[in-house]
Design brief:
By secondary structure, the chain is an alpha/beta fold. It contains 7 helices and 10 strands. The strands form 2 sheets. A 6-stranded mixed sheet has the order 6-7-8-3-9-10. A 4-stranded antiparallel sheet has the order 2-1-4-5. The chain binds adenosine-5'-triphosphate. The site of adenosine-5'-triphosphate has 11 residues, from strand 2 and helix 1. Keywords: ATP-binding, Nucleotide-binding, Transport. It comes from Aeromicrobium tamlense. GO terms for molecular function: ATP binding; ATP hydrolysis activity; transmembrane transporter activity.
């Protein structure tokens, strides 16, 4: 579960400040998906940055699984992100030299934490299971250049779920895809959200996606408003 309550975020803008998020509240339960749409510059990316604890808001709280995060130290926030938050960005940021399977393992292989190194076997099983769940079991040894845009996005999604996050933050997952492949990625995200009990926040410009989500919200000038079923 993630609960953003009365969040306000401003950035310096010359002598004054620009308000990127203006008193926004959003609660997403485990297993459900909240969509956020809105014009360019309305504050959607800022909202995702606050929800993922990468930016601390000026005011308001961000509670993840019952833990209020805005007062945590930088180290505590980094640990929270490592254990609780999965990120999927619009641009695939896969490493060119690694296979799909290796992309999922790399974080765990790099760690010096002995406990996590000891979990290698379980990590490999989890990676295989997730590649199967995203429909890439037969493509696990392919590198990004050998995969289509939709397949690369599937690897991104699988990688974001490796550490069993309770919150999944997804930024424009279908923007680089045609309508059919975009629809398949949305289907996949909805199914994985249910199966993995994540609280998923999805930013999208694609209005067609909104009716399929648990809730939909529109951001305008930093203000977030819930859309009724008839508004979607
Ligand atoms: N690091 C920053 N420094 C200063 N101003 C910023 C910064 N990040 C965002 N802003 C401003 O905050 C406002 C919201 O920007 P944000 O990127 O969150 O919007 P957005 O809805 O995600 O836009 P887009 O759909 O184009 O990605 C804009 O006025 C933007 O110029």
């Amino acid at each position: 579960m993630i609960d953003l309550s009365h969040v306000t975020l401003t950035f310096p803008d010359g002598a004054s400040r620009v308000t990127a998020i203006d008193d926004a509240s959003l609660r997403v339960e485990a297993g459900s998906t909240a969509g956020v749409t809105g014009p360019s510059g309305s504050g959607k990316s800022s909202l995702l940055a606050v929800a993922s604890t990468l930016i601390t808001p000026d005011r308001g709280t961000v509670t993840i699984d019952g833990v209020e995060t805005t007062d945590l130290s930088l180290t505590e926030k980094a640990e929270l992100r490592r254990t609780k938050i999965g990120l999927v960005f619009q641009q695939s940021n896969l490493l060119g030299s690694l296979t799909a399977y290796e992309q999922l393992l790399v974080m765990n292989e790099l760690t010096t934490d002995p406990k996590r190194r000891a979990e290698r076997h379980a990590t490999r099983e989890r990676a295989a299971e997730l590649l199967d769940a995203v429909g890439l079991a037969g493509d696990r040894d392919k590198r990004p250049a050998q995969l289509s845009g939709g397949q690369r996005q599937r690897v991104n999604i699988a990688r974001a779920l490796m550490h069993r996050p309770s919150v999944l933050i997804v930024d424009e997952p279908t923007s680089a895809l045609d309508q059919e492949r975009g629809g398949q990625i949305v289907d996949l995200l909805l199914r994985l959200t249910e199966e993995n009990h994540t609280a998923t926040i999805l930013v999208t410009h694609d209005q067609r996606i909104l009716p399929r989500l648990t809730s939909a919200h529109r951001m305008v000038d930093g203000r977030l408003r819930a859309l009724s079923a008839s508004d979607r």
